[in-house]
Amino acid sequence: MPKIFRFTRFSLRDLIVTAGPASLLVLALCIGAYWLIDPSPPKHVVMSTGQENSAYEEFGKKYAAILARQGIAIELRASPGSQENLKRLQDNDSGIDIAFVQSGSTEQSEAERQGLVSLGSLFTEPVWIFLRGTKKINELGQLKGLRINVGQDGTGVPQLFKSLLEANHVDPAALHLSTLDNTPATVELLAGRIDGVVFSSAPDAPLIQMLLQTPGIRLLDFPQAEAYTRRLPFLTHVVLPRGIVDLGKNLPAQDIHLIAPTATLVAREDLHPALMDLFVQAAANIHGGAGWFNAQKAFPTANYTEIPVARDAERYYRNGPSFLERYLPFWLANFLSRMWVVIIAVGALAVPLSRIIPPLYVWKVRSRVYRWYGTLRAVEQAIEDVPPPERATVYREQLQRLDEIEEKANHVSIPLSFAEELYGLRSHINLVRKRIQWLMEAGEAREPARDFNA
After folding, report:
1. Which of 73, 116, 431, 441 gives a 20 to 30 Å CA spacing to 61?
2. What is the CA radius of gyration of the chain?
3. What is the pTM of this model?
4. CA angle, 30 as apex, 26 and 35 as ends, to 5°?
5. What b/e sequence results for 179-205 when a residue is b if at least 16 CB atoms lie within 10 Å of its CB, and e otherwise?
């Protein structure tokens, strides 16, 4: 069997020798490009969410579940809220890669300076002001003297609420403000130890859902909601429709006008682009449905954010998922979309190489035969113009040399498709041998004639 494999129509050894350098060059270029482009995202991401029982916490869990299907582990870190999340993103030592940030928390120039990008607005976060008692209140100026909890400084609600009071020319000192977390503040409200709580959250938050259905707790209506949006551009006017909480119980009993900033998914600009794509796709999956304050597919969107939107996220919101993302697994679609330039370059390099390598392969195989023609030519030159006294010795030496060449040629392994060259070499060796033999016979025939004439 080993002998059979030696006589094939293809020489793997010669192919490796001829195509090997080109293949190594292409491989080196691919490895270098892969290292520079870095198509594979990291497998671990740190996300800053919100307080216990908050919408940020609930949505953070949903993002973690979706990205886990792609092999990406999201570490969720609790936070007081939007302002603290923004500080963590701005702090390079915090280890936070992505977080929920409320609109109006920063300015575009500051976000650009800090290297932050938005992956889109996710949902509205209405300002929910829940109050105890029967006194009808529909203006913030009527809250003077009441005990109102606005949450911790890191939530963003204190700053937002003070902006609303300022727009109404109300001094915050005219209210008794406290800074409890959402859950303890809700307990205090239900116990009657405070008069109201201020939240800014999606209606999905468990505490919001509970308070909307709690007897004795009223939600403050903003009849001037449209005016608020003109004075504070980061706010939008939303309406809590009558009966949306519970149709059977008709909760609420009438439409309630609210003002709302939007929750934005904010990341560091050096977050891997593939991860940005995954988060944007997850956002479309989580927030794309119809909600209390938005129609189907109204969110996520590139609007309602003062933070510059990442280029890949903006492309997604404009055109939707790419062709590759629609029909291929994430890892393959990501690899092809980020390596397409390299693939085209390698293809362009492979075209000329495909024309060069076959002739090189043919030359390499034939050179194993042709190199003996140089030795054969040396034998022919050795028998030219030999002085008569030395001819017999030289001819015998060259005949012996031809035997050695033939012996080595017989051990040359060559594909069957090139056997013609090998048999040609053998016939030429035999031709030179016959010539030397003829010269020897002719010399021996002349030698007696010279003696007789002498």
Report:
1. 116
2. 43
3. 0.65
4. 150
5. ebbbeebbebbbeeebbbbbbbbbbeb
pLDDT, one tens digit per residue, over 217-270 is: 999 999 999 999 998 888 999 999 999 999 999 999 999 999 999 999 999 999
Q: How far apart are the first and last CA of the chain?
A: 65
**190: Cα separation from own chain's centroid:** 48
Q: Which two tokens stand for residue 21?
A: 């350098």
Can you tell me which residue has the tokens 């002998």?
Answer: 3
Q: Pseudo-torsion of CA 247, 249, 253, 255, nearest 10°?
A: -20
- Angle 372-376-382 (CA atoms, 0-180°, nearest 5)? 145
The mean pLDDT value of the chain amounts to 85
Question: CA 282, CA 414: separation in Å to the nearest integer?
Answer: 60
**Structural domain for 186, as ranges:** 126-260
What is the number of other CB atoms lying within 10 angstroms of the CB of residue 48?
28
Measured distance CA(303)–CA(318) in Å, rounded: 11
Q: Measuring CA to CA, which residue among 77, 76, 81 is closest to residue 202?
A: 81
Secondary structure letter of residue 372 according to DSSP: H
Asked if 386 and 431 sit in the same domain, the reply is: yes
Cβ burial of 445 (10 Å; 0-12, 13-18, 19+) is: exposed
Angle, to 10 degrees, between the axis of helix 311-319 and the axis of helix 273-287?
A: 40
Cβ-contact 412, 368 below 8 angstroms: yes
Query: 198 and 77 in one domain?
Result: no
**290, part of any domain:** yes
